[in-house]
From TrEMBL:
One of its GO terms (cellular component) is cytosol. It comes from the Bacteria. The lineage of its organism: Bacteria, Pseudomonadati, Pseudomonadota, Alphaproteobacteria, Rhodobacterales. This is 23S rRNA (Guanosine(2251)-2'-O)-methyltransferase RlmB. One of its GO terms (molecular function) is RNA methyltransferase activity. NCBIfam families: rRNA_methyl_3 (TIGR00186). Pfam families: SpoU_methylase. Residues 30-103 form the RNA 2-O ribose methyltransferase substrate binding domain. One of its GO terms (biological process) is RNA processing. SUPFAM superfamilies: alpha/beta knot, L30e-like. The keyword Transferase applies. The gene is rlmB. Transmembrane segments: none annotated.
Length: 265
């Protein structure tokens, strides 16, 4: 009698990757605050699971989409019903959702709405900074904000609240390796410009030499700055000119200034 062929065991790294994928698919996010919840409710691409509100917040949210049954709770018991971080300014509204899926980098970079303008974030982990950058990116017409899957701010309620609704409209794409993504963008015709205080050239000077070009602006974390491989991948390292030697901006303010300059190019 012929022996049954033995099943080939999957490598450990394959098993770990599959587990991580399943865990990510099961994860949900609690959005909070009237602006973030209202815009998420209005987004047909957002998978909505549970809406918890006070009566006052429900009255202020306006029309609720079909299929969503609000759970009305008292303001005094809200924090016990919804698992939000301490000190969250929820305004009596919280919505449990699945994270958004934005598709492939190439599709966004080549044919996404808006100007051929992207933002890449290298280890920017503060959700308030990322939320503010998403808001600026939407205002100045960028096609996407890109960040590595690890060592970056995930999609959270705090990020969404700071973004003030921009998270629902402005693509926030997480990639496996940021340097590889920048190389891919260069192959598509993008010029990669990193913002760093050590840059010898100023941002206006760099942009003046690149009229009409597709641009990706790269920002590092406050303190550690850009990682070495990220820096090596960029075409230019530039700085924002300051009026005095002590001038400095945090990463979200620097991104707003740079996006404004690049959007006028």
């Amino acid at each position: 009698m012929a022996e049954k062929p033995q099943k080939t065991k999957k490598p450990t790294w394959v098993i770990d990757k599959e587990r991580a994928r399943r865990a990510a698919a099961a994860e949900t996010v609690w959005l909070f605050g009237l602006h973030a919840v209202r815009d998420a409710l209005a987004n047909p691409e957002r998978q909505k699971l549970r809406l918890v509100v006070t009566q006052n917040a429900l009255d202020r949210l306006g029309e609720i989409p079909d299929g969503i049954e609000p759970e009305i709770t008292d303001a005094r018991t809200f924090d016990r019903v919804v698992p939000l971080p301490p000190e969250s300014v929820h305004q009596g509204a919280a919505l449990e959702v699945k994270a958004l899926t934005w598709g492939k980098l190439a599709d966004l970079a080549l044919s996404g709405p808006g100007k051929p303008l992207l933002v890449a974030l290298d280890r920017v982990t503060d959700p308030h900074n990322v939320g503010a950058i998403l808001r600026s990116a939407e205002v100045f017409g960028a096609r996407a904000v890109i960040a590595p899957s690890r060592h970056s701010a995930p999609e959270t309620g705090a990020l969404a609240k700071t973004a003030s609704g921009a998270l629902e409209r402005q693509p926030y794409l997480r990639v496996g390796n940021l340097a590889d993504a920048l190389i891919e963008l260069k192959e598509m015709g993008y010029t990669i410009i990193a913002l760093d205080g050590t840059g010898e050239e100023t941002l206006p000077e760099a942009l003046e030499a690149l009229p009409g070009r597709a641009i990706c602006l790269v920002f590092g974390a406050e303190g550690p700055g850009l990682r070495e491989r990220t820096r090596e991948t960029c075409d230019k390292i530039v700085r924002i000119p300051f009026a005095a030697d002590f001038g400095s901006l945090n990463v979200s303010n620097a991104a707003a200034v740079a996006l404004y300059a690049a959007s006028r190019n």
